Amino acid sequence: MSSQIETTFLQGELYINGKWVSAPNQSYFESFNPATGELVGRCAAATTEQVNEAVTKANEAYLQWQNIPIPERAAYLLKAAQLFDIRKQVLARVMTMEMGKVLTESLGEVGVVIATAQYMAGEGRRLFGETVPAGFPDRNVRMVREPLGVVACITPWNFPVALASYKIFSALIAGNSVVWKPASEVALSAKIFVEVLDAVGLPPGVVNLVTGSGRTVGQTLAEHSDVKVISFTGSTEVGQKLAEMGCQTLKRISLELGGKNAVIVLKDADLDKAADGIVKSAFTTTGQRCTAASRVIVERPVKEMLLQKVIDLTQSMKIGNGLEEGIQVGPLVNEDQLHTVENYVKTAIEEGGTIVSGGQRVKELGGYYYEPTIIEDVKPHHTIAQEEIFGPVLAIIEVDSYEEAMEVNNGTIYGLSTSIYTESLHYANRAAKEAISGLVYINNGTSNAEMGVAFGGMKMSGNGHREVSHHAFDVMTEWKSIYTNY
Questions:
Q1: Residues 6+ apart with CB under 8 A from 274
Q2: Range of 183's domain?
Q3: CB atoms < 10 A from the CB of 482, how many?
Q4: In this structure, what CATH number is given to the domain that contains residue 362?
Q5: Does some domain include residue 113?
Q6: Would you list the DSSP string of 402-440?
Q7: Do 429 and 292 share a structural domain?
Q8: How far apart are CA 365 and CA 155, in angstroms?
Q9: Number of domains in the chain
Q10: Which of 69, 158, 466, 475 is the most exposed place for a label (fewest CB within 10 A)?
Q11: pLDDT of residue 309
Q12: pLDDT at 3 over 50
């Protein structure tokens, strides 16, 4: 496989049963670079019939794939890790062209894909069952994990391939087959991802790619009786709808949803470290992360000093096309997201907030750029303190104590990631216990997950399932209890 992009225009077809396919009258949708407005390429829009075919072929492949010894499945993932490393530059560049994140971030994301393939291959040797003492003589009792069947992986645009790798690789090593629906904004990145899996030589039908709309592709997958698992990352609203549709056929449904993450800064904190962690958490990926910090909850005595440090770091960030060297903040993914951010900032001002940095579209750059924005005088009940923005907007909320800070932190419908900066073991340990969130960081920003550590949220940030670690197998397998009388 070439490590260079051969053309500036890319085309993606559907990948079903080990072949790239399209119908004679296939419809296509276009992908545009949010930094420049230029056309990147086009991808096939799958019909209901094509989605059904993908599920049928995946189900047929599953019947064979589940019987392949797990070390052999692991070998496919290890080979994929090698090929992803070869195609790293190509895949990273297309990701940046499609959704705008800076190239260094895209390269890092491909690194996560490689690490996930290696990790899940290793987990294949640890898909342990259990044995328990029998209550009767001459009997053995054991429990084993069994794959479920066809897994529908539905992934967002902000991490085009890393989130897919979490889902797809854990599904495959467990013995399931996959039908993948990526977000349309990053369908070409998905094409390159699947090209690697195709080159690995996976049996036909084990992995299938169906691009297109949520209304057609997503709904068909959610309602299909042969789809046994839905693994979804995206908005809480869409996740709720998928759960409603999927429950009709008693699917296993894993939802990784939105967040309204906060950094708590107590008056004893190292303010330089706190400011650095806040800015990285708030504005990396232009704030388009489910774990992005969108609230700073700071004790009043250090608020002004912290705010100035955050402003200085923010205003030193270079905004521009993510393919250019030295850029730290790229564009928002599309025009709709740009308007969403503008409306949230407008609402914040109407409700009494004060812009202290940013607050404007960067029109001279031509793309969907918005300045990293900091707003103070925000109250816990204000809209920007409650709703997920998914953009580079940071709300500053003042409090008088740790207790008030934790009350504000927990006072949203979400519970994904909480960060606290403090030199106090007392407050650090209280925060670890009292924060209602799936992730808690002490003296670190809100967005810094590691491989092998369970990832997921509480409350409306998810439905209790976890990814990234071996806990993913709680979604991808089910238990079978075996009684042997001898």
A1: 263, 265, 306, 309, 421
A2: 10-257+462-485
A3: 11
A4: 3.40.309.10
A5: yes
A6: HHHHHHHHT-SSEESEEEEE-S-HHHHHHHHHH--SSEE
A7: yes
A8: 29
A9: 2
A10: 69
A11: 98
A12: no
- Pair of tokens at residue 110: 């491909």
Task: Tell me the percentage of the chain whose pLDDT exceeds 70.
Answer: 98
Q: How far is CA 82 from CA 103, 115, 118, in A?
A: 20, 10, 9
Helices 425-434 and 402-409 pack at an angle, to 10 degrees, of: 20
Residue-wise pLDDT tens digits, 262-310: 999 999 999 999 999 999 999 999 999 999 999 999 999 999 999 999 9
* Cβ pair 196, 88 in contact under 8 A: no
Helix (H) or strand (E) holding 99: helix 88-99
Record the tokens describing residue 396, joined without a space: 């500053």
- Do residues 292 and 186 both lie within one domain? no
H-run or E-run covering 206 = none
Sole residue written with tokens 């996976």:
202
Q: CA nearest 173: which of 81, 83, 111? A: 81
One-character DSSP codes across 328-356 = -B---SSHHHHHHHHHHHHHHHHTT-EEE
What residues are labeled active site? 256, 290
Q: Does the model's pTM come out above 0.85?
A: yes
Return the structure tokens found at 268.
């004893």
Residues 423-475 have pLDDT tens digits of 999 999 999 999 999 999 999 999 989 999 999 999 999 999 999 999 999 99
Q: Is residue 294 part of a domain?
A: yes
Tokens encoding 375: 């707003």
Mean pLDDT of 164-170: 98
Per-residue exposure over 202-234, b if at least 16 CB sit within 10 Å of its own CB, e if not: bebbbbbbbbbebebbbbbbbebebbbbbbbbb
Burial (CB < 10 A; 0-12, 13-18, 19+), residue 114, is middle
Closest CA to 397 of 311, 266, 260, 298: 298
**Cα 299 to chain center, whole Å?**
31
- Distance between CA atoms of 40 and 187, rounded to whole angstroms? 11
Rounded percentage of the chain residues whose pLDDT exceeds 90:
98
- Same-domain pairing of 227 and 267: no
Tokens in use for 342?
Answer: 């503008």
> What is the spatial distance between Cα 434 and Cα 427, in angstroms, rounded to a whole number?
10
Which DSSP symbol is given to 443?
Answer: S
Element holding 162 (H helix, E strand):
helix 162-174
